[in-house]
Each structure stands twice: as structure tokens, then as C-alpha cells.
Write a structure and sequence with these properties.
Layout: H1 2-25, E1 28-34, H2 41-60, E2 69-75, H3 80-92, E3 98-100, H4 105-118, E4 122-124, E5 139-141, H5 146-160, E6 164-170, H6 173-186, E7 192-199, H7 207-214, E8 220-224, H8 229-240, E9 246-248, H9 255-261, E10 269-272, H10 288-302, H11 308-327, H12 331-339, E11 344-345, E12 350-351, E13 367-372, E14 375-378
Parallel strand pairs: 1-2, 1-3, 3-4, 4-5, 6-7, 6-8, 8-9
Antiparallel strand pairs: 10-13, 11-12, 13-14
Helix pairs in contact: 2-11, 3-4, 5-6, 8-9, 11-12
Length: 380
């Protein structure tokens, strides 16, 4: 009997040790939620591509502490309900240690309660300030806050002596967050919002709103949305002969917008991460080297330009890599180390997180760009 018990004990210990060894030597699973298809695919596709590219490169160099990363990606199609379902699947079935994405503010807000309840680090790739303001324990982001984008535009307007504006924002999570920031920060820069109007994500004509703006005292128009709506607005502005300067948000900071708007994109100004103008940045720019490397790498992999949005996913994976290297691969260790991230030079900017700041960037993460001859140029 004693021999049987001894043998059984040895077998159990051996099994537990084997399971422990497998767990500590198997792949580290990272979940990803991106809008690879659907209306926000111009965000999700480069995000998915960039995340896969950097994970493959990390694994080719031996992984993290000898362990490979496994990227589990689900396509949300830009749908908040699908994002919640996929987040639960990643946590409960796939057993991921962290999640990157989703691509949009609305989806991110929808899955925040899941991440908080399940105690899983989430690094959103969306821009809405409310994703991390107020701070949530388990939630971080890589996309520059829309409040910072608003500041960049308002500083430019002040320099140009423009103090009366019309805002036209999309009625979704990104648009409502931008609208809040545009209104909340206006007085600080001596700006008066004389027209405050919205449009629907699926609207295909905004001439009614623009006709109203044309008859107002507005000296400039600020449109806040993601494709395709802003391209429609740009075309409508040209069709109506509206001569006011047109500003867009960082939500259209990719060549896809120029393709959609065509000739109507000429002269439009918007805040953007540096990656789309990496080739014309001064040599003294701290990000220039890594940005050029990212653009070249993406071009080699996908025969397309690496952009602002793909950069959000690249940053998210690299931030996780740093956190795992410093503290291990449990969700709590990753969360704690993310919060201690200091001066990480990413694609979106120089990240420094803290207990009171899970967005990690300043307005210097943005530059103002102008579209000239269907390409980007820096606004001096």
C-alpha cells in the first residue's frame, strides 16, 4: 500500500512539474481585437498587420526570455457587441495574458468593463480621451488623445488669428469624445464655437450642415470623424464652393483619406503622429530613426506605407514586450510594469505612463500636416 501511495505521489508531483514546465516554456498568448473588415478597416487592417509583423520579428530573435509570443487576433468589424464577445473569448477560452485593441473608441469603451472585471491588461489603439480619463486600473492606450489633437489645432488657429469656428462631428464614440474636447478647450484659446453640428457615421451627404456653416460667422471648419464621412465632407465643401479653411482630426491620418477625398483633400490640415512625415523630419528628431525603420519594414512586408494607425499596434506589442521582460508574464505583473513605463520611444510618441496617466503622451506626440498634391507636408 505504501509503495502504491509513494508511486501515486511521485506521479502527481511529476505531472504538476510537467504542467508547470509547459506553462513556463510554452508560448505567451496575447489577444488582439481589430476592425480588420467593416467600415473602420482602414484602422484595423494596418493594426493587425503591424502587430503580426512585430510579433514575428520578436519570435525570430528568440522571443521573450526564450519564450515565443502567440498573437490571437479576432476581427470585430467595428462592432462593439462583437468586440465584447471576442474579448470574453480571448480571456476565458484562449487564456491570453493581455489584450491590444480595439481599433475604435466605441468598441474600447464597451470592453473596458470586461478588462476591469477579469483583471486583464488592455492597451487600446483608439484615441478617445475618456478611454483612460479617468484612469482605469487595467486600461492603457497608445493612440494620442483627442484632447491633445484639439490643442494642436487650436494653437494653430490662435497663431492665425482665427477665433470663430464651426465644428462638424460624427455621432459615434470618437466623434462625441472629440466634440467634448473641442467645446471644453475652446475658451482657453479664445475660440468661439459658432456652429455645433453632427452627422451620422453612414451619412453620404452633408450639404445641409455645410450650407448652414457657410451662412454663419465661422472663420474655419473643424471636422471630427473617421473615414468615409470626412472625405464626403471634404467633397461637399468643394462642391458648395465654401472658402473656409478645413481642418480634420487625426482620425483620417492615412493615405486612405486622400484616396477617398481625391482633389478635395488639397489644403486640408490635421494633427498626426510623425510617422506619415518621417522622411521630412529634421535629423534631430528623436523618433525619426525608428519611424523610418517601421515604414521600411511595413513596406517590405505588405507593399504599402506603414501609417499612424499601424503604429498604434506596433507600440502596444512593444510596450507589452518591455513589461514582460521587466516583470514576467502574469496579467498583474504586466499591468504593474506597464504603469512604470518611462520614455519609451514608440511610433506614436514618447510614452511615459504613471498611476495617474495611462495615456502616456503629450501634445508633442503630434505634428500638424497639410495635404499638398495628394501627399503630406509639415505645417511650419
Amino acid at each position: 500500500m505504501k509503495r502504491f501511495l509513494f508511486a501515486a505521489t511521485v506521479l502527481i508531483i511529476s505531472s504538476l512539474w510537467s504542467a508547470h514546465c509547459f506553462a513556463s516554456s510554452g508560448p505567451i498568448k496575447i489577444g488582439a481585437l481589430f476592425s480588420v473588415t467593416g467600415p473602420p478597416s482602414f484602422l484595423g487592417e494596418p493594426e493587425r498587420n503591424s502587430a503580426k509583423m512585430v510579433v514575428d520579428e520578436i519570435n525570430a530573435k528568440g522571443g521573450i526570455k526564450g519564450r515565443k509570443l502567440e498573437l490571437v487576433v479576432y476581427d470585430t468589424q467595428g462592432d462593439a457587441t462583437k468586440a465584447v464577445q471576442a474579448a470574453n473569448r480571448l480571456i476565458k477560452e484562449d487564456k491570453v495574458v493581455a489584450i491590444i485593441g480595439p481599433s475604435t473608441t466605441g468598441e474600447s469603451m464597451a470592453i473596458i468593463p470586461v478588462a476591469e472585471k477579469e483583471a486583464i491588461p488592455l492597451i487600446s489603439c483608439a484615441a478617445g480621451s475618456k478611454i483612460t480619463d479617468p484612469v482605469k486600473k487595467w486600461v492603457f492606450k497608445t493612440a494620442q488623445n483627442d484632447g491633445l489633437a484639439v490643442t494642436k489645432i487650436y494653437e494653430h488657429l490662435k497663431k492665425k488669428g482665427i477665433n470663430k469656428i464651426a465644428i462638424l462631428t460624427v455621432s459615434d464614440g470618437f466623434g462625441s469624445s472629440g466634440r467634448e474636447q473641442l467645446k471644453a478647450n475652446a475658451a482657453k484659446f479664445g475660440v468661439q464655437v459658432v456652429v455645433d453640428d453632427t452627422y451620422g457615421p453612414k451619412d453620404t451627404d452633408m450639404t445641409a450642415q455645410l450650407t448652414k456653416i457657410r451662412g454663419s460667422k465661422a472663420q474655419a471648419i473643424i471636422c471630427w470623424g473617421t473615414n468615409p464621412g470626412p472625405a464626403v465632407i471634404a467633397k461637399n465643401v468643394k462642391q458648395l464652393g465654401v472658402k473656409l479653411p478645413l481642418f480634420m482630426s487625426h482620425g483620417v491620418s492615412s493615405k486612405k483619406f486622400i484616396e477617398l477625398a481625391g482633389d478635395a483633400s488639397e489644403g486640408i490640415i490635421l494633427p498626426s503622429g510623425r510617422v506619415i512625415v518621417s522622411d521630412v523630419l529634421p535629423a534631430s528628431d528623436k523618433q525619426k530613426k525608428s519611424l523610418l525603420a517601421f515604414v521600411k519594414d511595413y513596406q517590405n512586408h505588405y507593399k504599402a506605407e506603414g501609417d499612424h494607425f499601424g503604429g498604434h499596434a506596433w507600440d502596444a506589442v512593444m510596450l507589452l514586450k518591455g513589461a514582460i521582460e521587466r516583470g514576467g508574464d502574469t496579467p498583474s505583473a504586466i499591468r504593474d510594469q506597464l504603469e512604470k513605463t518611462q520614455n519609451f520611444a514608440g511610433i506614436g510618441g514618447i510614452f511615459t505612463y504613471s498611476a495617474s496617466d495611462h495615456a502616456g503622451l503629450t501634445k508633442d506626440a503630434f505634428v500638424l500636416v497639410e495635404i499638398k498634391k495628394k501627399d503630406w507636408s509639415l505645417v511650419k
